[in-house]
Amino acid sequence: MKRIYLNENEKDFIIERKEKKYKFPKLILIMRSELYRGMFLSVTEDKSNKVTDYSELSNKSFQILEYWIYSNQIKDEIQITQEIIDEIEIGIDYFQLNQTNPNLIDLLINKFNNQN
Asked: Any idea where the BTB domain is (predicted)?
């Protein structure tokens, strides 16, 4: 999945947050998100590149979600707070992310507990 994500030619969907745009491969979003799976695979849905705005997440929380979506990991240098865990739980619900192993919330809680 990481190879697909890092290939710029595969990034055919934009998620817009505040003033920044993030490019994602539709294939990864279809595999990881019920929201996008329904959008992209629906026969009645417009198949054009859509822009989704989800600005309630902080930049840090969105970057954690973005990295986890294609790597199943959290970057080592990220400091986890309870606020980030709470935001990401909302983001998981919003994007209807599939909680495959490793579960993102479990990773965040473990990292948070190990920091303290």
From this structure: 11-78
